[in-house]
Amino acid sequence: MRIAVLGVGLIGGSIGLAARRRLHAEVVGFDPDQSNLASALKLETIDRTAGSVADAVADAELVFCAAPVRALGDLIAAALDASGADTAVTDVGSTKRELMAAVAGHTAASRYVGGHPLAGAETAGVANARDDLFDGARWYLTPEPGCDGLLYDRVQRVVADLGARPQALDAEAHDRMMATVSHLPHVIANVLVAQAATALGEDAERLPEVGPSFRDTTRVAGANPAIWTDIFTANGDAVATEIDHVVERLGAAAALIREGNPASIAAWQRQAGESRRALVQSKLGAGALREVRLSVSNKPGTVAEIALALGRAGVNIEDMALYPAQDMRTGAISLWVAGDQAAQQAARVAGDLGHTVTLVGAQS
Amino acid sequence: MRIAVLGVGLIGGSIGLAARRRLHAEVVGFDPDQSNLASALKLETIDRTAGSVADAVADAELVFCAAPVRALGDLIAAALDASGADTAVTDVGSTKRELMAAVAGHTAASRYVGGHPLAGAETAGVANARDDLFDGARWYLTPEPGCDGLLYDRVQRVVADLGARPQALDAEAHDRMMATVSHLPHVIANVLVAQAATALGEDAERLPEVGPSFRDTTRVAGANPAIWTDIFTANGDAVATEIDHVVERLGAAAALIREGNPASIAAWQRQAGESRRALVQSKLGAGALREVRLSVSNKPGTVAEIALALGRAGVNIEDMALYPAQDMRTGAISLWVAGDQAAQQAARVAGDLGHTVTLVGAQS
């Protein structure tokens, strides 16, 4: 099988590696950045380089377009233009509706299938490419109704062979969903830091130590401006609609808090806890995530000691948050592990190390 | 010196322990919950128990009221009623304006100083009490203008002797500040999970894997309903005002995104990043926090190996976030360490272990 990869960064490079090693495919790479292309070849993410899109897609059975979101429309059109009637073209862009609309007018649009792997946003660049990047990852495919069935099947089969779990979804639902769980948190983080900067900037001497809730809520504020400008423009409608809904909900929250009825506020707070647990814990194979909270000293080595003991006991840490006290010497650690059994084992292990352990929301 | 502690939970118990061990004070404890009081005595957080508020405060030079926020008004009044002209009374409630107003009418209001230590919210109960809980922690004091100067001085001296860093602030500024950096993130987390639950609940089969930004932003959603109902009612005005401002800012963000001008969106995104760095990194003695990002395998032992190696190298991890890939076997780890030197050392250590390392926002 011959596969073309147009754009060899983290995602394109990882597709190339996985396709070469797992599908034993021949992978041809193209990138407008020559040094990027040379690195991709040197790292063996591709078998050979192509000098143009046309050169890359010639005789390819499948073309992956892995450029930044803004460049995808033109790149997909070029790939469709230059490839034959049996070539499937897909992409890896994180927003889909605008792109599907742009491609819809192409005479060969039926050979295109939109795609979006949920993987690899944290570290960019072909140097970080891995053949297991997509293992177990959801990979959305957004075929249009007129899409060629055989070519769609080829795309989803290759995606599965790369290690991912393909799922078809219409482009609008995809973008709305991404707006809710990914793009909106970024908007809110931005707004919150701006507000805090204004509120506190007036008297810098009074700037308080910022608590863990603020740090968590604003961690993604100002993330990679190039990438996020693309996302906010490409998915603008869905993101703006999500913001409208949040504004409504915040208005209701302000009214609830101004009214000051403790029973209503408590019910709202409880409901939020239940919603979060349902959302975050869903679909984790090994069991719902359980939080194990420890009071610890935060000196060098403490985190290691705990993590090492858990590793020895075979308990995997799915997520972790450190809440250092102001002196940075003591604090609390929250660990999330999958399933009740792992939680109880983690509690036992940490307890044996002398830490005070709380199993949050224990049901037993 | 004799100190009375009214309410012996995590905070009251830790005050008792630190006062006994560090100030060699005689600590008398009272708690309406008899088993709590017995535990406090057994854990040596107090020297003796009192049968009533009056019994506890008799001859005390300083009284700490450490009950839940809603109970503090009555408790402070009772302590002022029962104590002599040379007894200072303070509290540890996390909101101050409403409380100051309630106490202001008391004939002995000049003996009261409002207080709020920024410590210990993560783990409740006297079993978690520690004599070093307040080490290096900010402890806000909110004296009224009519406050007795000698008694104020006693409160702030004892607070410093407990290990904390006292700072005077007027009650309204305190509450506004807490609303911005602590209470507002909780409101937003609640709203966000409610919105996601509605948006996604309609088609549970399509529930996506929830990304790290969503998890971070909503981590505190639905936190302890009893405590947060108290906070939202006691600090309702300030919190509602903060929400109003966020609503305005979100409206502006929605307009910006609908307008779709890439340059404006990029500028907004960059500004958010700068604001966050300024807010979160301020006032950390050892240097601004630096983020070190690693691509790792997420098998048991990986976190330990990294943390242990850093510990050996004398690098302390101030904060940590794990971003597991969907398969929970690979992913990325972000570490925050204090100062450029520590960041570079951390990068070296992690690199030696074979991980791909990115120093985020490196300036060198």
Question: Layout of SSEs?
Answer:
Two copies of one chain form a homodimer.
Chain A: E1 2-6, H1 10-22, E2 26-30, H2 34-42, E3 48-49, H3 53-57, E4 62-65, H4 69-82, E5 88-91, H5 97-104, E6 112-117, E7 138-142, H6 149-161, E8 165-168, H7 171-201, H8 212-217, H9 225-234, H10 236-259, H11 262-281, E9 289-297, H12 302-312, E10 319-324, E11 330-338, H13 340-352, E12 356-359
Parallel strand pairs in A: 1-2, 1-4, 2-3, 4-5, 5-6, 7-8
Antiparallel strand pairs in A: 6-7, 9-11, 9-12, 10-11
Helix pairs in contact in A: 7-10
Account of the 3D structure:
The structure is a homodimer of 364-residue chains. With 364 residues, chain A is an alpha/beta fold. Chain A has three domains: 2-169, 3-Layer(aba) Sandwich (Rossmann fold); 174-259, 6-phosphogluconate dehydrogenase C-terminal fold, CATH 1.10.3660.10; 289-359, ACT domain (Alpha-Beta Plaits), CATH 3.30.70. In chain A, 49% of the residues lie in helices and 17% in strands. The first copy, chain A, contains 13 helices and twelve strands. Chain A has helices at residues 10-22, 34-42, 53-57, 69-82, 97-104, 149-161, 171-201, 212-217, 225-234, 236-259, 262-281, 302-312, 340-352, and strands at residues 2-6, 26-30, 48-49, 62-65, 88-91, 112-117, 138-142, 165-168, 289-297, 319-324, 330-338, 356-359. In chain A, the strands form two sheets. An eight-stranded mixed β-sheet of chain A has the order 3-2-1-4-5-6-7-8, sandwiched between helices. A four-stranded antiparallel β-sheet of chain A has the order 10-11-9-12, with helices on one face. In chain A, strand 4 (62-65), helix 4 and strand 5 (88-91) form a beta-alpha-beta unit. In chain A, helix 7 (171-201) packs across helix 10. The longest helix of chain A has 31 residues, at 171-201. The interface between A and B is large, with 145 and 146 residues.
